[in-house]
Design goal:
Oligomer: single chain
Shape: globular
Helix content: 55-70%
Number of strands: 16
Distance between the termini: 30 Å
Radius of gyration: 35 Å
Structural class: alpha+beta
Strand order of the largest sheet: 1-7-2-3-6-4-5
Length: about 725
């Protein structure tokens, strides 16, 4: 009898060259493809590989989207950047830039003054703005509706085109002043001879390097996707074990089993890879906003990247099939296909070491600076490394209690589920550890990036007390006539004061009309004196400009001493900032209007938006880790489900499958989810104490416990369902 891999000799004593060997490898792949369609006993493996392939392809397409987006942004920034010149005869326009904020997010404001008729405007502008006109990016118009951004800088003349924005999410404004500036008198204006040079402006100022984005995507999402793929490759079934054992008995070598495995993995891998194309197709058809970041992808960038998109899909498919072949379980010898019981006790030093790790984390709060952070990091690594041993012991104790109660109450499902938890805690432990470590990593990154600093915290506190009733107005173009005009154009009940921050003075001097000073309860002193008012607005001004703040009435109602600092606008009520901004921009180009300490809030907002990206990548990674652990636990249960067939026959019901799965998987996992969230919250609180800054993301923890609970219920239901489906043909046989 010939075996697989041998060639049948011809009658003339020769052996066919290549043809039969070629038929053999094709037949083996076809056998694998037939088995990989998800027949009885192989459905779980099919769907696990399907999901893993989709996850790997999704990460690959995410990397493609990042690369293509950065390439498109760089090209558009290169096209719109100003080319400066010192030769006045070559200049086609004057250029000046400033910054403004909408909802504590900074954007660039560009002032333009064309010098030559027929000169090309910057990319994205169909024409030069007329005097007093402003053109805004669509995202700035959308986000600034509450602050009436379209009327802030002048007459709104339309939006900036896509070619002039590095991304559809960019906030940018082009303004042409009402009066033509004199560049010789004002050195802040620069001469431009055209556009076509990379220049830092707009969104480019806050962008992270591409390598950092890819590294974050790879660590937080790519690694969990590969873990899921590794778990999927190790999932087996009794039918697959028999198939590979038969192949080995017929003389098949490892390469023959690899061909069958390749055929098994090809169909689910192709289907999963095809599924991952759907979000990419949506992103190429329209500008897609990514939750929770709010960032808009440029669809044209993704469409132009179709060659690397195809290459990424082919590569992800090859990785899925390759890992499935390399990590596939071989045939199991003997009759037992269930996981071997792990009844050996956990070495005591591991438990002691984990306790020491917990102790180091708790003790780190009493150390300051670097020693505290080092102690916290070492304790965290030791705790996470040895936590599986503690989890095994805890689950065994839980399994004993469940089994004892099931025996006492006459519940066979609870009894069997508890005994299986004692004998096979591995699947549940892996999922529990995935919850703890995955959630811990996400929360630690959130805590680190939630540090806002003392100044930002003080600015937030000032905003809560006085809101926008105290507004700072700063510009190098502030002159006494401008201040007089501004005071006349403010909302009723508003007053203008000057802050003299001359370094030669011993303290900051606050000057204003007697009426303005009396509105703050400061009287009307003709000589500088210390402030004594209890008005909250004065308290906050003193907090930001020095405790030695002095006050003095201006020489006349509308004439002030030489201005060294900025203006302070006091409004009667909050909510009038938009009117103050409109009045200031109508008089002064490139003016900065902000509430007390708002600049610090803008800086902390950059970290907050970075946290959204970490939350996006981390949440996807945590979901993949939970999915990997859930499928691993369900697969282990599926391998031992046939042992319940006799009990199901005796009881005449398949309810024992669902009950055993519920007590072996769902109940321990629900308890593990609660413990994981409590442990992560406890861990994050100590990190906050060590850094003396930041905050625990309780919202993330609340969402995580809900997600982990859903995963626990789903894996129990999946285990029970696969058990019932497998028992029916077994019972018939």
């Amino acid at each position: 009898m010939s075996t697989v891999g041998e060639r049948t000799p011809r009658t003339d004593g020769t052996t066919p060259k290549g043809r039969r060997g070629g038929r053999l490898w094709w037949q083996l792949i076809r056998i694998g493809c037939a088995a990989g369609r998800g027949g009885p006993g192989d459905r779980l493996r099919f769907w696990v590989l399907f999901v893993a392939a989709a996850a790997v392809a999704l990460v690959a397409l995410g990397a493609v989207a990042a690369v293509s987006t950065y390439d498109g942004r760089a090209a558009r920034n290169q096209a719109r950047g100003p080319v400066f010149t010192d030769r006045q005869q070559d200049a086609v326009a004057l250029w000046r830039e400033g910054f403004d904020t909408v909802d504590e997010v900074q954007h660039t404001v560009i002032y333009l003054q064309p010098l030559k008729p027929g000169a090309q405007p910057p990319p994205g502008l169909a024409r030069w703005p007329a005097p007093g006109e402003v053109m805004l990016s669509p995202e700035l118009v959308r986000e600034g509706q509450q602050e009436r951004i379209t009327s802030r800088y002048g007459r709104y003349a339309g939006t900036i085109g896509t070619s002039g924005l590095v991304s559809p999410s960019e906030r940018l404004a082009y303004i042409r002043p009402t009066q033509a500036p004199d560049s010789r008198a004002d050195q802040s204006w620069r001469s431009v001879r055209g556009f076509g040079q990379s220049y830092p402006m707009g969104e480019v100022l806050d962008s992270r390097p591409l390598a950092q984005v890819l590294l974050t995507l790879g660590l937080l999402t790519g690694v969990p996707a590969l873990v899921l793929l590794a778990v999927a490759a190790r999932v087996g079934s009794r039918a697959r074990d028999r198939r590979l054992s038969l192949l080995q008995a017929l003389g098949g070598a490892w390469r023959h089993r690899a061909l069958v495995t390749m055929g098994e993995a090809a169909l689910p891998a192709a289907a999963g890879t095809a599924l991952a194309i759907l979000p990419m197709l949506a992103a190429t058809s329209t500008d897609l906003r990514i939750p929770p970041t709010g960032y808009l992808l440029n669809s044209s960038d993704l469409r132009s990247a179709w060659p690397i998109t195809v290459a990424a899909l082919v590569l992800s498919f090859a990785i899925t099939v390759g890992v499935a072949v390399l990590l596939s379980r071989g045939p199991r010898h003997g009759t037992a296909v269930a996981p071997r019981p792990s009844s050996s006790p956990v070495p005591r030093p591991r438990l002691v070491g984990c306790g020491l790790g917990f102790g180091a984390v708790a003790f780190s709060q009493y150390l300051m600076g670097t020693p505290g952070l080092v102690t916290f990091a070492v304790g965290t690594v030791v705790m996470w490394a040895l936590l599986p041993s503690v989890a095994v012991e805890a689950l065994r104790a839980l399994g004993d209690k469940l089994a004892a109660r099931g025996f006492r109450d006459g519940r066979p499902g609870q009894l069997i589920g508890g005994r299986w938890t004692v004998a096979h805690p591995g699947g549940v432990v892996r999922l529990a550890i995935a919850m703890v470590i995955g959630l811990g990593l996400v929360c630690q990154l959130q805590v680190v990036n939630s540090r806002v600093g003392e100044k930002a915290a003080a600015a937030r506190a000032s905003q809560a007390v006085v809101g926008d009733s105290v507004i700072s107005v700063q510009s190098r173009d502030l002159t006494p006539p401008v201040i007089e005009a501004l005071s006349r154009s403010l909302p009723a009940g508003s007053h203008v004061l000057t802050l003299n921050t001359d370094p030669e003075q011993q303290a900051t001097l606050l000057q204003g009309s007697c009426r303005a000073l009396r509105s703050l309860g400061l009287g009307c002193p003709t000589t500088p004196r210390a402030t004594t008012s209890g008005d909250q607005r004065v308290t906050e001004i003193r907090h930001w400009y020095g405790p030695g703040l002095r006050i003095q009435a201006a020489p006349s109602t509308l004439r002030y001493d030489r201005l060294y600092g900025s203006l302070i606008v006091i409004t009667r009520t909050t909510g009038q900032r938009a009117e103050v901004e409109k009045a200031a921009y109508a008089l002064v180009p490139s003016v900065t209007v902000e509430t007390l300490g708002e600049g610090w809030l803008v800086g902390s907002g950059v970290k907050f938006r970075l946290n959204n990206w970490l939350l996006l990548f981390g949440s996807l990674g945590l979901a993949l880790l939970l999915l990997a652990g859930s499928l691993s636990a369900a697969a282990e249960f599926a391998r031992v489900r046939h042992t319940l067939v006799p009990i199901a026959d005796l009881t005449g019901s398949h309810h024992v499958f669902r009950s055993a799965a519920r007590w072996h998987l769902t109940v321990p996992l629900l308890m593990s989810a609660v413990v994981a969230v409590v442990l992560t919250g406890w861990h994050a609180m100590f990190l906050v104490a060590v850094m003396q800054a930041g905050s625990v993301p309780w919202g993330v923890l609340a969402a995580a416990v809900c997600g982990c609970a859903l995963a626990a219920v789903a894996v129990g239901a999946l285990g029970g369902r696969t058990g019932v489906r497998a028992a029916r043909p077994a019972a018939v046989g």
